[in-house]
Amino acid sequence: MHAHYANRWSSRAFDSRPVADEVLYTVLEAARWVPSSGNGQPWRFIVARTEEERRRFASFIRPANREWSDHAPVLILLISYTLNANGTPSGSHAFDEGTAWGTIAS
Rounded to two decimals, what is the model's pTM? Predict the structure, then answer.
């Protein structure tokens, strides 16, 4: 197994300091360019940075996850379009979105 994955660490708490725009935009830009089926990039990012935005997100976050998410300075929701550009169902939208998420998470 590659050391990058074997040594991966997942935090149990987040620093409440704001995330610089440059850092956030770099992460989102990397995920935006992830390849997808038919080059459709069916994902979109909804970013919550302000207290009001994070409160809106809190309404659909499971209580157990609120223990960490309530302290995160930024929350990102990924959504994906279930239809291709021509209106037909996409069989790969969730896989494609997961690839974008994997880029953000690593």
Answer: 0.81
